[in-house]
Amino acid sequence: MDAGSDDRMIIGFDGDDTLWHNENVLWSAEQKFHDVLLHYLPAEELSHRLYETEMRNLSLFGYGAKGFVLSMIETAIDVTDGRIAVADIQKLVGFLKDIVAHPLHLIGEAARVVETLSQSNRLILISKGELFHQENKIASSGLAKFFSGIEIVSEKDQGVYQRILTRHTIRPDNFVMVGNSLRSDIDPVLKLGAHAIHIPYEITWRHEHLSPIEGEAPRYFLRETIAEVPQTVSAIEGLPRTGD
Amino acid sequence: MDAGSDDRMIIGFDGDDTLWHNENVLWSAEQKFHDVLLHYLPAEELSHRLYETEMRNLSLFGYGAKGFVLSMIETAIDVTDGRIAVADIQKLVGFLKDIVAHPLHLIGEAARVVETLSQSNRLILISKGELFHQENKIASSGLAKFFSGIEIVSEKDQGVYQRILTRHTIRPDNFVMVGNSLRSDIDPVLKLGAHAIHIPYEITWRHEHLSPIEGEAPRYFLRETIAEVPQTVSAIEGLPRTGD
Fold first, then answer.
1. Going by fewer Cβ within 10 Å, which terminus of chain B is more open, N or C?
2. Chain A positions in Cβ-Cβ contact with residue B87 (cut-off 8 Å)
3. Is the Cβ pair A90, B82 closer than 8 Å?
């Protein structure tokens, strides 16, 4: 089958940990959080308590750096029974400023891949998190001009992807999502009948963990780097599709 | 001139302090912040220092309740030279939870007005703040179904309104924005050539202050309550317009 322009896949790209590094910045803040509190609890226990606080606060704060550090402050007070020094709390607020002011670094060949694909396919950036922080990261990335749509969402579940596809009048079998998170980028789009290219990041936040998908799952493509995306998209465009 | 369906104005509504109460919830948190710190500084000075911190942090945190309370924590440590009790910092984190969990209260006849107008006009909700918190408020308001578009933005300036009008293919002279803030709802849309209905809220955050607009400014309508919006929109629809 020859892939004419109407057969071109519309490609959704995740931002954090797919196009640019993010989790390593949060990971590094968490290491500094450990350093502050190591004489109270071992690192592993601190991570565990912080994660519990984050999960408890998720329905109040949503995702994002501010909620992460507010949960750090709460955990720090909690695990020290209020004995933490005020100067240490001030350090935690400083970690937040380090995170949001951290210079953005694109991952591998993200820039080249996005620019090249934008010449042949419609691209949509679908990122999850805090509006203000995501907008800043997108602006810093210099990639905004290659996307015909930019969607910043507070959650990435099946309903959210369905609304995005509807708003952009995209058929699921004509859509492929590229992302690092099984939970947020891969699983919900596969359930909608779309394709997914999964590129794991070096670190996965515990919350985004999901049992690995079998290599043989239909419409699921596991790749090591973003450089492999153009070839994978071409392969998908060559597959027989509904309506053919 | 008879206002046929094509002559109907498209109406933008602000959310916070236009459709539902917001500033009073933040105001009340700030009073509690004063209570915590009154033995260090008088209330007026505390408000001043908090506002300075907020403005300094705006380019890092953006608008919203989490940034507000993070600035509270920073100010509290600052004005007490680190002598604030950890238990008091814990209280400040608690204020944030009170804010985000606060039940939403619609203002006056907001529900009736929005429902009625939605039967004759296209309505767009344009709210500024944190995505997650704004989405929760919009859901709680029960008003989402009356809007043909919902735009949550991190800033409300001329460029942002221009992009919204372009995306929805709305001519400025066919658009009227209803809101409480001169800075965010009124001034930028007037500059674009659109109409604006200004309904001041009982409290205005200092940052949103702007010199009052003269009663005679073209396309500017100052009203006391949201109940006056339908009649004002009808009056605007009866005005001669570009293209007539």
1. C
2. 82
3. yes
ipTM of the complex: 0.89
Closest CA to B226 of B8, B20, B23: B20
Cβ-Cβ contacts under 8 Å, B60 against chain A = 97, 100-101
Query: DSSP strand E in chain A: where?
Result: 10-13, 123-128, 149-153, 175-179, 195-198, 220-222
Q: Which one, of A138, A159, A142, lies nearest residue A150 by Cα? A: A138
* CA distance to partner chain B, nearest, from residue A43 (Å): 22
- Residues paired with residue B126 on neighbouring β-strands, in sequence order: B151
This prediction has a pTM of: 0.90
∠ Cα A215 A221 A222 (to 5°): 70
For residues A31 and A20, what is the distance between their CA atoms, to the nearest angstrom? 20
Q: How confident is the model at residue B129 (pLDDT cuts 50, 70, 90)?
A: very high
CA distance A52 to B144: 33
CA dihedral B85, B91, B92, B96 (to 10 degrees): 160
The sign of the torsion formed by the CA atoms of B210, B213, B219, B223 equals: positive
Q: Which of A143-152, B2-11, B189-198 has the lowest mean pLDDT?
A: B2-11
Note whether B135 and B160 are within 8 A (CB).
no
Q: What is the mean pLDDT of residues A5-15?
A: 88
Residues of B in contact with A144 (CB under 8 A): none
pLDDT at B215: 60
A132 interaction partners in chain B (CB closer than 8 Å): 61-64, 130, 154
Q: What does the alpha-carbon distance between residue B234 and residue B225 come to, in Å, rounded to a whole number? A: 16
CB contact under 8 A, A131 and B135: no
Residue A209 has pLDDT above 90, yes or no: no
Please count the CA atoms within 13 angstroms of the CA of A185 that sit on its side-chain side. 33
B93-108 exposure pattern, b = at least 16 Cβ within 10 A, e = fewer: bebbbebbebebebbe
> Is the dihedral angle over the CA atoms B209, B215, B217, B223 positive or is it negative?
positive
| Domains of chain B, earliest start first | 5-21+104-237 (3.40.50.1000), 24-101 (1.10.150.240)
- Closest residue in chain B to residue A137, using alpha carbons only: B60
If one counts every other C-beta atom within 10 angstroms of the C-beta of residue A4, the result is 8
Contact B83 A82 (CB under 8 A): no
Q: Where is pLDDT greater, at A244 or A68?
A: A68
- pLDDT score recorded for residue A59: 94
Residue B242: predicted pLDDT: 59
Q: Which amino acid is at B153?
A: V
Q: How far is CA A8 from CA A111, A127, A208, B56, B222, in A?
A: 20, 22, 30, 46, 51
